Amino acid sequence: MPAPTPAAISTQFKGKKNVPTLQKRLCNKDLISNAGINSLNLFKKVIFALTLLLRSELCGDVSHEYLRAAVPQELLPAVLALSRYHNIPHIAADALEHHDIISDDRLSSAFKREKLLSICRYERISHELARLESALDEAGIYFMPLKGAALRDFYPLPRMRSSSDIDLLVRPSQLDAAVETVTSALSARKISVGTHDVKLITSIGVPVELHFSLIENAPAVDAVFSRVWEESVSDTAVPHKQVMSAELCCIYLILHTAKHFRHGGCGMRPIMDLWVLRERVGFDEKAVKTQLQSCGLQKFHESLNSLCDVWFKGMEHDPLTESTALYICSAGANGSVENRVAGARRLTGKHSYAARRVFLPYDLLAEQYPVLKKRRYLTSLYQIRRWVRIIKEGGTKSALRELRTNRRLSQTRLDTVAALYNSLGL
Predict the structure, then answer these.
(1) Which pTM value belongs to this model?
(2) CA distance 324 to 16
Protein backbone atom coordinates (compact mmCIF):
# COMPACT_ATOMS: atom_id res chain seq x y z
CA MET A 1 0.00 0.00 0.00
CA PRO A 2 1.44 3.42 -0.94
CA ALA A 3 2.37 5.92 1.73
CA PRO A 4 -0.42 8.35 2.58
CA THR A 5 0.05 11.92 1.47
CA PRO A 6 0.67 14.59 4.13
CA ALA A 7 -2.66 16.17 3.20
CA ALA A 8 -4.46 12.89 3.84
CA ILE A 9 -2.88 12.26 7.23
CA SER A 10 -3.81 15.79 8.32
CA THR A 11 -7.25 16.34 6.85
CA GLN A 12 -8.24 17.80 10.21
CA PHE A 13 -6.18 20.92 9.42
CA LYS A 14 -8.61 22.29 6.82
CA GLY A 15 -9.47 25.83 7.70
CA LYS A 16 -10.88 27.66 10.69
CA LYS A 17 -14.26 25.93 10.64
CA ASN A 18 -12.68 22.58 11.36
CA VAL A 19 -10.21 23.46 14.11
CA PRO A 20 -8.42 20.28 15.26
CA THR A 21 -7.96 19.08 18.81
CA LEU A 22 -4.31 20.05 18.44
CA GLN A 23 -5.18 23.70 17.87
CA LYS A 24 -7.42 23.71 20.92
CA ARG A 25 -4.56 22.38 22.99
CA LEU A 26 -2.05 24.74 21.40
CA CYS A 27 -4.23 27.79 21.88
CA ASN A 28 -5.57 27.21 25.38
CA LYS A 29 -3.42 29.92 27.00
CA ASP A 30 -3.89 33.68 26.81
CA LEU A 31 -0.36 34.12 25.48
CA ILE A 32 -1.05 32.00 22.40
CA SER A 33 -4.78 32.55 21.96
CA ASN A 34 -4.06 34.23 18.65
CA ALA A 35 -1.53 31.65 17.40
CA GLY A 36 -4.35 29.99 15.46
CA ILE A 37 -2.83 26.97 13.77
CA ASN A 38 -5.72 26.60 11.36
CA SER A 39 -4.13 25.25 8.18
CA LEU A 40 -1.85 22.42 7.19
CA ASN A 41 0.73 24.76 5.64
CA LEU A 42 0.95 26.84 8.81
CA PHE A 43 1.37 23.71 10.91
CA LYS A 44 4.24 22.59 8.66
CA LYS A 45 5.92 25.96 9.14
CA VAL A 46 5.64 25.67 12.92
CA ILE A 47 7.14 22.16 12.84
CA PHE A 48 9.98 23.37 10.61
CA ALA A 49 10.72 26.31 12.90
CA LEU A 50 10.77 24.12 16.02
CA THR A 51 12.93 21.39 14.48
CA LEU A 52 15.34 24.04 13.23
CA LEU A 53 15.71 25.34 16.79
CA LEU A 54 16.28 21.78 18.02
CA ARG A 55 18.88 21.23 15.32
CA SER A 56 20.64 24.45 16.30
CA GLU A 57 21.11 23.18 19.86
CA LEU A 58 21.74 19.50 19.11
CA CYS A 59 23.98 19.84 16.07
CA GLY A 60 25.25 23.40 16.25
CA ASP A 61 25.34 23.67 12.46
CA VAL A 62 22.66 26.31 11.84
CA SER A 63 24.00 29.78 11.14
CA HIS A 64 22.79 32.76 13.12
CA GLU A 65 21.57 34.57 9.99
CA TYR A 66 19.69 31.59 8.61
CA LEU A 67 17.95 30.83 11.91
CA ARG A 68 16.80 34.41 12.41
CA ALA A 69 15.42 34.46 8.87
CA ALA A 70 13.75 31.04 9.09
CA VAL A 71 12.02 31.55 12.46
CA PRO A 72 9.79 34.63 12.10
CA GLN A 73 8.43 36.41 15.18
CA GLU A 74 4.82 35.71 14.28
CA LEU A 75 5.38 31.93 14.55
CA LEU A 76 6.96 32.02 18.00
CA PRO A 77 3.72 31.75 20.04
CA ALA A 78 2.82 28.59 18.13
CA VAL A 79 6.40 27.30 18.42
CA LEU A 80 6.18 27.75 22.18
CA ALA A 81 2.88 25.89 22.24
CA LEU A 82 4.10 22.98 20.12
CA SER A 83 7.32 22.68 22.14
CA ARG A 84 5.24 22.56 25.34
CA TYR A 85 3.07 19.88 23.75
CA HIS A 86 6.22 17.75 23.32
CA ASN A 87 7.90 18.68 26.63
CA ILE A 88 10.88 20.35 24.93
CA PRO A 89 10.28 24.12 25.32
CA HIS A 90 13.60 24.53 27.16
CA ILE A 91 15.58 23.55 24.06
CA ALA A 92 13.66 26.03 21.92
CA ALA A 93 14.22 28.66 24.63
CA ASP A 94 17.98 28.01 24.62
CA ALA A 95 18.19 28.39 20.84
CA LEU A 96 16.11 31.57 20.80
CA GLU A 97 18.23 33.02 23.60
CA HIS A 98 21.54 32.08 21.99
CA HIS A 99 20.52 33.72 18.70
CA ASP A 100 18.68 36.67 20.28
CA ILE A 101 15.57 36.07 18.15
CA ILE A 102 12.68 37.11 20.42
CA SER A 103 11.75 40.78 20.33
CA ASP A 104 8.56 40.59 22.41
CA ASP A 105 9.26 40.87 26.16
CA ARG A 106 6.17 38.95 27.18
CA LEU A 107 6.97 36.07 24.88
CA SER A 108 10.60 36.11 26.00
CA SER A 109 9.46 35.83 29.62
CA ALA A 110 7.25 32.86 28.72
CA PHE A 111 10.15 30.97 27.11
CA LYS A 112 12.42 31.79 30.06
CA ARG A 113 9.80 30.52 32.47
CA GLU A 114 9.57 27.21 30.58
CA LYS A 115 13.35 26.92 30.64
CA LEU A 116 13.52 27.51 34.40
CA LEU A 117 10.73 24.99 35.02
CA SER A 118 12.59 22.43 32.94
CA ILE A 119 15.84 23.03 34.82
CA CYS A 120 13.96 22.66 38.09
CA ARG A 121 12.48 19.32 36.98
CA TYR A 122 15.88 18.16 35.75
CA GLU A 123 17.54 18.99 39.07
CA ARG A 124 14.83 17.20 41.04
CA ILE A 125 15.20 14.06 38.93
CA SER A 126 19.02 14.28 39.02
CA HIS A 127 18.94 14.59 42.80
CA GLU A 128 16.72 11.52 43.20
CA LEU A 129 18.64 9.54 40.56
CA ALA A 130 21.92 10.14 42.41
CA ARG A 131 20.37 9.05 45.70
CA LEU A 132 18.79 6.05 44.03
CA GLU A 133 22.02 4.89 42.40
CA SER A 134 23.96 5.34 45.63
CA ALA A 135 21.38 3.41 47.68
CA LEU A 136 21.17 0.51 45.22
CA ASP A 137 24.93 0.31 44.89
CA GLU A 138 25.44 0.26 48.66
CA ALA A 139 22.81 -2.49 48.96
CA GLY A 140 24.64 -4.60 46.38
CA ILE A 141 21.77 -4.46 43.91
CA TYR A 142 22.63 -4.46 40.20
CA PHE A 143 20.73 -1.91 38.12
CA MET A 144 20.74 -0.55 34.59
CA PRO A 145 19.48 2.93 33.57
CA LEU A 146 16.88 3.01 30.78
CA LYS A 147 15.45 5.70 28.49
CA GLY A 148 16.30 9.26 29.58
CA ALA A 149 18.47 8.13 32.50
CA ALA A 150 20.64 6.19 30.04
CA LEU A 151 20.80 8.76 27.24
CA ARG A 152 20.93 12.22 28.77
CA ASP A 153 24.69 12.26 29.35
CA PHE A 154 25.21 11.90 25.59
CA TYR A 155 23.32 15.09 24.78
CA PRO A 156 25.32 18.32 24.38
CA LEU A 157 23.85 19.27 27.77
CA PRO A 158 22.31 16.52 29.93
CA ARG A 159 19.39 18.77 30.90
CA MET A 160 18.36 18.88 27.24
CA ARG A 161 16.98 15.34 27.64
CA SER A 162 13.92 16.03 29.77
CA SER A 163 12.23 13.20 31.66
CA SER A 164 9.15 12.89 33.81
CA ASP A 165 10.37 9.84 35.75
CA ILE A 166 13.32 7.54 36.42
CA ASP A 167 13.46 4.15 34.70
CA LEU A 168 15.85 1.46 35.92
CA LEU A 169 16.17 -2.23 35.12
CA VAL A 170 16.94 -4.57 38.03
CA ARG A 171 17.48 -8.31 38.16
CA PRO A 172 14.24 -10.23 38.88
CA SER A 173 15.97 -12.05 41.76
CA GLN A 174 16.76 -8.69 43.40
CA LEU A 175 13.43 -6.97 42.76
CA ASP A 176 12.07 -7.22 46.31
CA ALA A 177 15.35 -5.95 47.75
CA ALA A 178 15.38 -3.09 45.22
CA VAL A 179 11.83 -2.05 46.11
CA GLU A 180 12.66 -2.15 49.81
CA THR A 181 15.83 -0.10 49.24
CA VAL A 182 14.03 2.57 47.21
CA THR A 183 11.19 2.69 49.73
CA SER A 184 13.52 3.23 52.68
CA ALA A 185 16.31 5.33 51.13
CA LEU A 186 14.05 7.74 49.17
CA SER A 187 11.00 7.56 51.46
CA ALA A 188 9.11 6.27 48.44
CA ARG A 189 5.76 4.55 48.35
CA LYS A 190 4.67 1.81 45.99
CA ILE A 191 1.99 2.78 43.46
CA SER A 192 1.45 -0.37 41.43
CA VAL A 193 2.95 -3.69 40.39
CA GLY A 194 2.76 -4.82 36.77
CA THR A 195 4.03 -7.74 34.77
CA HIS A 196 7.21 -5.86 33.82
CA ASP A 197 7.77 -3.19 36.45
CA VAL A 198 7.01 -1.78 39.88
CA LYS A 199 5.98 1.88 40.04
CA LEU A 200 6.89 4.01 43.03
CA ILE A 201 6.94 7.71 43.85
CA THR A 202 9.53 9.39 46.03
CA SER A 203 8.88 11.79 48.89
CA ILE A 204 9.45 14.81 46.62
CA GLY A 205 7.11 13.49 43.94
CA VAL A 206 9.51 11.93 41.42
CA PRO A 207 8.06 8.74 39.85
CA VAL A 208 10.40 5.72 39.73
CA GLU A 209 9.82 2.65 37.58
CA LEU A 210 11.81 -0.44 38.54
CA HIS A 211 11.66 -2.71 35.50
CA PHE A 212 12.46 -6.33 36.17
CA SER A 213 11.86 -7.64 32.66
CA LEU A 214 12.11 -6.38 29.08
CA ILE A 215 10.41 -9.52 27.79
CA GLU A 216 7.27 -8.80 25.74
CA ASN A 217 6.03 -12.36 25.05
CA ALA A 218 7.14 -11.94 21.45
CA PRO A 219 9.78 -14.58 20.58
CA ALA A 220 11.91 -12.34 18.33
CA VAL A 221 11.93 -9.47 20.85
CA ASP A 222 12.50 -11.76 23.80
CA ALA A 223 15.48 -13.36 22.07
CA VAL A 224 17.09 -9.92 21.73
CA PHE A 225 16.75 -9.03 25.41
CA SER A 226 17.20 -12.44 27.00
CA ARG A 227 20.93 -11.69 27.41
CA VAL A 228 20.67 -8.01 28.31
CA TRP A 229 22.60 -8.48 31.56
CA GLU A 230 25.30 -10.65 30.00
CA GLU A 231 25.91 -8.10 27.25
CA SER A 232 26.06 -5.08 29.55
CA VAL A 233 29.23 -3.57 30.99
CA SER A 234 29.95 -2.26 34.47
CA ASP A 235 30.24 1.44 35.22
CA THR A 236 33.72 2.08 36.59
CA ALA A 237 32.49 4.72 39.05
CA VAL A 238 29.50 2.76 40.41
CA PRO A 239 30.33 -0.97 40.71
CA HIS A 240 26.75 -2.28 40.65
CA LYS A 241 25.62 0.00 37.82
CA GLN A 242 25.44 -1.76 34.47
CA VAL A 243 25.39 0.02 31.12
CA MET A 244 23.44 -1.38 28.19
CA SER A 245 25.39 -1.74 24.96
CA ALA A 246 24.77 0.96 22.35
CA GLU A 247 23.28 -1.64 20.00
CA LEU A 248 20.76 -2.89 22.57
CA CYS A 249 20.03 0.69 23.59
CA CYS A 250 19.10 1.54 20.00
CA ILE A 251 16.99 -1.61 19.61
CA TYR A 252 15.17 -0.88 22.89
CA LEU A 253 14.56 2.71 21.75
CA ILE A 254 13.01 1.57 18.46
CA LEU A 255 10.88 -1.10 20.14
CA HIS A 256 9.66 1.34 22.78
CA THR A 257 8.99 4.06 20.20
CA ALA A 258 7.02 1.64 18.01
CA LYS A 259 4.93 0.65 21.02
CA HIS A 260 4.02 4.28 21.77
CA PHE A 261 3.55 5.06 18.06
CA ARG A 262 0.92 2.32 17.85
CA HIS A 263 -0.79 3.68 20.95
CA GLY A 264 -1.36 7.17 19.62
CA GLY A 265 2.06 8.78 19.13
CA CYS A 266 5.61 8.83 20.44
CA GLY A 267 6.46 12.53 20.61
CA MET A 268 9.56 14.22 19.20
CA ARG A 269 12.03 13.15 21.89
CA PRO A 270 12.63 9.60 20.53
CA ILE A 271 13.73 11.11 17.21
CA MET A 272 16.21 13.25 19.13
CA ASP A 273 17.35 10.18 21.08
CA LEU A 274 17.94 8.27 17.85
CA TRP A 275 20.03 11.12 16.46
CA VAL A 276 22.10 11.23 19.66
CA LEU A 277 22.71 7.47 19.53
CA ARG A 278 23.66 7.65 15.85
CA GLU A 279 25.83 10.73 15.85
CA ARG A 280 27.22 11.07 19.38
CA VAL A 281 27.47 7.46 20.58
CA GLY A 282 27.76 5.22 17.54
CA PHE A 283 26.87 1.55 17.22
CA ASP A 284 27.10 -1.43 14.88
CA GLU A 285 24.36 -0.50 12.43
CA LYS A 286 24.48 -3.87 10.68
CA ALA A 287 23.86 -5.75 13.95
CA VAL A 288 21.00 -3.40 14.87
CA LYS A 289 19.45 -3.78 11.41
CA THR A 290 19.60 -7.58 11.64
CA GLN A 291 17.96 -7.68 15.07
CA LEU A 292 15.23 -5.20 14.13
CA GLN A 293 14.53 -7.15 10.96
CA SER A 294 13.89 -10.25 13.08
CA CYS A 295 11.45 -8.15 15.16
CA GLY A 296 9.65 -6.84 12.07
CA LEU A 297 10.73 -3.25 12.73
CA GLN A 298 13.40 -2.65 10.09
CA LYS A 299 11.10 -0.50 7.92
CA PHE A 300 10.00 1.54 10.93
CA HIS A 301 13.64 2.07 11.95
CA GLU A 302 14.58 3.16 8.42
CA SER A 303 11.72 5.64 8.37
CA LEU A 304 12.76 7.16 11.70
CA ASN A 305 16.34 7.38 10.44
CA SER A 306 15.08 9.25 7.39
CA LEU A 307 13.08 11.60 9.61
CA CYS A 308 16.25 12.20 11.66
CA ASP A 309 18.03 13.23 8.47
CA VAL A 310 15.22 15.64 7.58
CA TRP A 311 15.04 17.28 10.99
CA PHE A 312 18.71 17.35 11.93
CA LYS A 313 20.62 17.23 8.64
CA GLY A 314 18.42 19.37 6.44
CA MET A 315 17.41 16.62 4.00
CA GLU A 316 14.20 16.97 2.00
CA HIS A 317 10.96 15.29 3.07
CA ASP A 318 9.44 12.48 1.06
CA PRO A 319 5.71 11.68 1.42
CA LEU A 320 6.33 9.05 4.10
CA THR A 321 8.63 11.14 6.32
CA GLU A 322 6.28 14.12 6.07
CA SER A 323 3.24 12.03 6.96
CA THR A 324 5.15 10.45 9.85
CA ALA A 325 6.23 13.87 11.12
CA LEU A 326 2.67 15.20 10.98
CA TYR A 327 1.35 12.13 12.82
CA ILE A 328 3.98 12.48 15.56
CA CYS A 329 3.80 16.26 15.95
CA SER A 330 0.01 16.52 15.94
CA ALA A 331 -0.27 13.92 18.73
CA GLY A 332 2.14 15.42 21.28
CA ALA A 333 4.47 13.68 23.72
CA ASN A 334 1.79 11.33 25.05
CA GLY A 335 -0.02 10.54 21.82
CA SER A 336 -3.64 11.32 20.94
CA VAL A 337 -6.84 9.41 21.54
CA GLU A 338 -7.72 9.79 17.86
CA ASN A 339 -4.52 8.11 16.72
CA ARG A 340 -4.79 5.37 19.33
CA VAL A 341 -8.35 4.48 18.39
CA ALA A 342 -7.65 4.69 14.65
CA GLY A 343 -4.61 2.42 15.02
CA ALA A 344 -6.52 -0.17 17.05
CA ARG A 345 -9.50 -0.07 14.69
CA ARG A 346 -7.36 -1.45 11.85
CA LEU A 347 -7.95 -4.92 13.29
CA THR A 348 -11.50 -4.64 14.58
CA GLY A 349 -14.83 -2.92 14.00
CA LYS A 350 -16.43 -0.01 15.85
CA HIS A 351 -18.63 -2.11 18.13
CA SER A 352 -16.00 -4.76 18.76
CA TYR A 353 -13.49 -2.08 19.75
CA ALA A 354 -15.94 -0.52 22.21
CA ALA A 355 -16.69 -3.91 23.75
CA ARG A 356 -12.98 -4.69 24.15
CA ARG A 357 -12.37 -1.37 25.88
CA VAL A 358 -15.27 -1.81 28.30
CA PHE A 359 -14.57 -5.51 28.94
CA LEU A 360 -10.78 -5.72 28.68
CA PRO A 361 -9.58 -9.03 27.16
CA TYR A 362 -8.07 -11.45 29.67
CA ASP A 363 -4.46 -11.13 28.48
CA LEU A 364 -4.54 -7.32 28.78
CA LEU A 365 -6.36 -7.44 32.11
CA ALA A 366 -3.75 -9.89 33.43
CA GLU A 367 -1.03 -7.35 32.60
CA GLN A 368 -2.71 -4.89 34.95
CA TYR A 369 -3.52 -7.54 37.57
CA PRO A 370 -0.85 -10.30 37.47
CA VAL A 371 -2.78 -12.33 40.09
CA LEU A 372 -5.10 -13.39 37.26
CA LYS A 373 -2.35 -15.49 35.70
CA LYS A 374 -2.80 -17.92 38.58
CA ARG A 375 -6.48 -17.30 39.30
CA ARG A 376 -8.23 -16.77 35.99
CA TYR A 377 -11.61 -17.49 37.57
CA LEU A 378 -11.39 -14.02 39.20
CA THR A 379 -11.51 -12.25 35.81
CA SER A 380 -15.07 -10.89 36.27
CA LEU A 381 -14.21 -9.55 39.70
CA TYR A 382 -11.14 -7.74 38.36
CA GLN A 383 -13.12 -6.30 35.46
CA ILE A 384 -15.29 -4.58 38.09
CA ARG A 385 -12.20 -3.62 40.10
CA ARG A 386 -10.75 -1.98 36.97
CA TRP A 387 -13.94 0.08 36.44
CA VAL A 388 -13.88 1.21 40.06
CA ARG A 389 -10.21 2.19 39.75
CA ILE A 390 -10.91 4.22 36.60
CA ILE A 391 -13.72 6.09 38.38
CA LYS A 392 -11.66 6.68 41.55
CA GLU A 393 -8.66 7.97 39.58
CA GLY A 394 -10.82 10.41 37.63
CA GLY A 395 -10.60 8.53 34.35
CA THR A 396 -14.30 8.57 33.56
CA LYS A 397 -14.10 11.60 31.26
CA SER A 398 -11.16 10.22 29.27
CA ALA A 399 -12.86 6.82 28.97
CA LEU A 400 -16.05 8.42 27.67
CA ARG A 401 -14.03 10.58 25.31
CA GLU A 402 -12.35 7.48 23.89
CA LEU A 403 -15.72 5.83 23.28
CA ARG A 404 -17.05 9.00 21.61
CA THR A 405 -13.94 9.18 19.44
CA ASN A 406 -14.44 5.57 18.41
CA ARG A 407 -18.04 6.35 17.40
CA ARG A 408 -17.18 9.49 15.43
CA LEU A 409 -13.99 8.53 13.57
CA SER A 410 -14.46 8.79 9.82
CA GLN A 411 -13.56 5.96 7.48
CA THR A 412 -11.15 8.32 5.70
CA ARG A 413 -9.24 8.89 8.92
CA LEU A 414 -9.17 5.15 9.66
CA ASP A 415 -7.93 4.33 6.15
CA THR A 416 -5.26 7.04 6.29
CA VAL A 417 -3.80 5.86 9.60
CA ALA A 418 -3.93 2.25 8.43
CA ALA A 419 -2.05 3.21 5.26
CA LEU A 420 0.61 5.03 7.31
CA TYR A 421 1.06 2.03 9.62
CA ASN A 422 1.36 -0.30 6.65
CA SER A 423 3.91 1.97 4.99
CA LEU A 424 5.97 1.91 8.21
CA GLY A 425 5.71 -1.86 8.48
CA LEU A 426 3.72 -1.73 11.72
Answers:
(1) 0.84
(2) 24
